[in-house]
Amino acid sequence: MKIILNGNPHETQAPTLDAVLVELDFADAVVATAVNGTFVNAAERAETRLADGDQVEILAPMQGG
Amino acid sequence: MFEFYGTPVASRLLLGTAQYPSPAILADAVRASGTGIVTVSLRRESAAERGGQDFWALIKALGVRVLPNTAGCHSVREAVTTAHMAREVFGTPWIKLEVIGEQDTLQPDVFGLVEAARILSDDGFEVFPYTTEDLVVAERLIEAGCKVLMPWGAPIGSGRGLNNAYGLRTLRAHFPDIPLVIDAGIGLPSHAAEAMELGYDAILLNTAVAKAGDPVMMARAFAGAIEAGRLGFEADPIEARDMAAPSTPLMGKAFL
């Protein structure tokens, strides 16, 4: 399955958002997630199934003004 | 001491965390400023670099409260989604709400701002709206649930100071009980002092400190200027007048 991860094509076998985070070694990282422009909170990640072409955003704390 | 949404605020300087020459200089500038609140953001995390994790560890070690922003958002939907993501990551209901309406001036889309502020306030957020000095927009933001207003001094990063001191003074006079923070456009410590002398409660700075030749020294300079400006306001300054008024008593002057 090919998803768009943070704006770039990404090949994955992970069926859920939670599994994608594990695949990327983000399981323990401080991140927030969205799929197709909709916020997915941490508790919902395990049941959020991904489909081909889904746009996944993984955001982390960053410098800001 | 004043409050943001019931939280006592000791320092009247809020500091942005972007554009510093290094993480160490950022940390030193935060300490030198004496601030208790820094602004932060959310951006895409790289699996290879994991820069966000390092940055978050640095901020947590400083022991300051964070004010996450929705910088770069141009629509209500984008800003609201970003706010939800920030609340989960940073564990705070505070959100510095930016809905940008124009790319050259980065001025807020005040229509979208009011709409997003209402949605977020209804959802339990404590919204710090980045707005203009427009009184009617300020009224709408307060109606939407905002208990803090953050009007710009000038466009973000411009360093121009207070473009419309009259408008800002009017805003202060209309909302004597709402915490008002100048957010954006400050370049010099004197600009910050001027805003504080108008009775503003605090100043939010980033570029003026981060891009100074010596950010740590500039952080100290702003801290001093903001304190001086506040003291000047509280001390009830004299009215300006057109003609001179002698300060040395004339009584007892010799006839020479």
CATH top level assignment of chain A: Alpha Beta
Strand content of chain A: 35-45%
Shape of chain A: globular
What's the total helix number of chain B? 9
Tell me the total number of β-strands of chain B.
10
State the low-pLDDT regions of chain A, or none. Answer: none
Number-wise, the strands of chain A total 5
Q: Look at the structure and name the CATH superfamily of chain B.
A: Aldolase class I
* Overall structural domain count of chain B: 1
Could you estimate the helical fraction of the residues of chain B in percent? 40-55%
The level of helicity of chain A is 10-25%
- CATH top-level class of chain B: Alpha Beta
CATH third-tier fold name of chain B: TIM Barrel
Backbone structural class of chain A? mainly beta
Q: From the alpha-carbon coordinates, what is the Rg of chain A to the nearest angstrom?
A: 11 Å
Subunit structure (chain B): Homotetramer. Forms heterodimers with either ThiH or ThiS.
Family (chain B): Belongs to the ThiG family.
Catalytic activity (chain B): [ThiS sulfur-carrier protein]-C-terminal-Gly-aminoethanethioate + 2-iminoacetate + 1-deoxy-D-xylulose 5-phosphate = [ThiS sulfur-carrier protein]-C-terminal Gly-Gly + 2-[(2R,5Z)-2-carboxy-4-methylthiazol-5(2H)-ylidene]ethyl phosphate + 2 H2O + H(+)
Function (chain B): Catalyzes the rearrangement of 1-deoxy-D-xylulose 5-phosphate (DXP) to produce the thiazole phosphate moiety of thiamine. Sulfur is provided by the thiocarboxylate moiety of the carrier protein ThiS. In vitro, sulfur can be provided by H(2)S.
